[in-house]
Design goal:
Layout: E1 29-31, E2 41-48, E3 58-63, E4 68-70, H1 73-77, E5 89-95, E6 98-103, E7 108-113, E8 119-124, E9 128-134, E10 137-142, E11 157-162, E12 168-173, E13 178-184, E14 187-192, E15 204-209, E16 214-220, E17 225-230, E18 235-240, E19 250-255, E20 260-265, E21 271-275, E22 278-286, E23 293-301, E24 306-309, E25 324-329, E26 336-340, E27 347-353, E28 359-367, E29 369-376, H2 383-392
Antiparallel strand pairs: 1-4, 2-3, 2-29, 3-4, 5-6, 6-7, 7-8, 9-10, 10-11, 11-12, 13-14, 14-15, 15-16, 17-18, 18-19, 19-20, 21-22, 22-23, 23-24, 25-26, 26-27, 27-28
Length: 395
């Protein structure tokens, strides 16, 4: 068995409010679990956002076959590019054999090969935010203007990118400061936040016809919309952050058959993911008028719209997190993944829980770990094969 030597480049203790094991500089990789062969999935990429203005966005990856978590894999695979990927990695998704990452403040979408991790192209999209896919197209939400609080901030748009030419083919204006999106039956749903125009937040979801790439309508929902998910029944879930004062955050359900809000769930949601008929969520909310902040977790049945339990873990693991940030579920193993951004300054952590909510492993990631993209085996060679190829090439 190959022996891995992990070199720590340096360490520094953070402020007393943070855990003592917090490190600023980390080794290349860590063995976090026993090797396992899954039927469909090889592992996942993870995008670390990096604190705004620090140019610290990085991409890591975890391989089930080796049980190894590797930090900053993108820099390793692209030594001729600047080590830092850019300023604020806002979203990461895989479509076919390509991976797409929106680098928000750097104003581009990074496209790289899923199998090799090699850079393919940077596509300019100003103030780009989130990604969605449908029928060979990539959809990117854009705040359009520069990053600033401005009551006159310009309207946002969604850009369509062809996955073969990697060129922007069409654009459509939506609402102000559009955030997450979902596609369902040839329609694109876009959560408009109006975050730059506070206190005059946008309150709408734009519905885009993907054939004509025009806006069919705006659905009135609530102020400051953000996250979106769609379940197997076609119900679209959108989270509203409210105005941080008297209008509280809530979760809303849109009926995609008539494109109207059919239910308000008095659940504050900061981030969420759906697997089969369960919506996993957490909230980290702050009210400016009271100074109160709360962190909570839960599972929701998407068929009944009833809360299953007000926790994600069943062993108290979530109590270890200082600032929950990313959340996802492995579609095959049903493992639940949570990330902890800590204080947003140092490195964060990833927690892997079993399907029953029991901690399996924990590992240090990069700065503000956030976005997961699971890798299907037909899109990626195993880590063992890639090491063998590199050895044969003298690398």
């Amino acid at each position: 068995m190959r022996i891995y030597i992990f070199l720590l480049l340096g360490l520094s203790l953070l402020c007393s409010s943070c855990r003592k094991e917090e490190l600023i500089f980390v080794s290349d990789s860590s063995v976090v679990s026993i090797p396992v062969q899954l039927e469909a999935y090889q592992g996942f990429y993870l995008l670390n956002e990096g604190n705004m203005g620090m140019n610290r966005a990085t991409i890591d990856w975890f391989d089930y076959e080796t049980g190894i978590y590797t930090r900053d894999i993108f820099s390793e695979r692209n030594p001729t590019l600047p080590k830092e990927l850019g300023d604020v990695g806002n979203d990461l998704k895989i479509y076919g054999k390509k991976a797409y990452a929106t680098i928000n403040a750097s104003n581009f979408v990074e496209v790289f090969d899923v199998e090799t991790g090699k850079h393919l192209k940077q596509i300019h999209v100003p103030n780009c935010r989130y990604l969605a896919f449908d029928q060979g197209k990539v959809y990117v939400s854009s705040f359009s203007g520069k990053i600033e609080i401005n009551p006159n901030a310009e309207i946002g748009f969604v850009a369509e990118i062809d996955t073969l030419s990697l060129a922007v083919t069409r654009k459509v204006n939506v609402g102000y400061q559009p955030e997450e999106m979902v596609t369902y039956r040839n329609k694109l749903y876009v959560a408009n936040s109006g975050g730059y125009r506070e206190p005059n937040y946008d309150t709408t979801v734009s519905v885009i016809d993907l054939t004509t790439f025009t806006e069919l309508k705006k659905i009135e929902v609530a102020p400051n919309l953000h996250r979106m998910q769609v379940d197997a029944n076609g119900d679209v879930y959108v989270s509203a952050r409210g105005n941080y004062k008297e209008i509280l955050p809530s979760l809303y359900v849109i009926d995609s058959k008539v494109d109207e809000v059919k239910q308000k769930l008095a659940i504050p949601v900061s981030n969420m993911t759906i697997d089969e008929d369960v919506l996993y969520y957490y909230t980290s909310s702050y009210q400016t008028d009271t100074g109160n902040s709360t962190i909570s977790y839960g599972l929701l049945n998407t068929n009944t719209k009833q809360i299953i339990r007000t926790s994600i873990s069943t062993d108290g693991t979530e109590e270890q997190l200082l600032m929950p940030y990313g959340i996802t579920v492995n579609p095959e193993t049903k493992e639940i993944f949570l990330t902890d951004a800590q204080d947003y300054i140092g490195n964060g952590y990833i927690y892997c829980l079993s399907a029953k909510g029991v901690l399996k492993w924990k590992v240090m990631a990069g700065n503000v770990p956030a976005h997961f993209a699971f890798i299907k085996k037909n899109n990626l060679k195993s880590a063992i094969e890639m090491r063998r190829d590199n050895k044969s090439k003298g690398k």
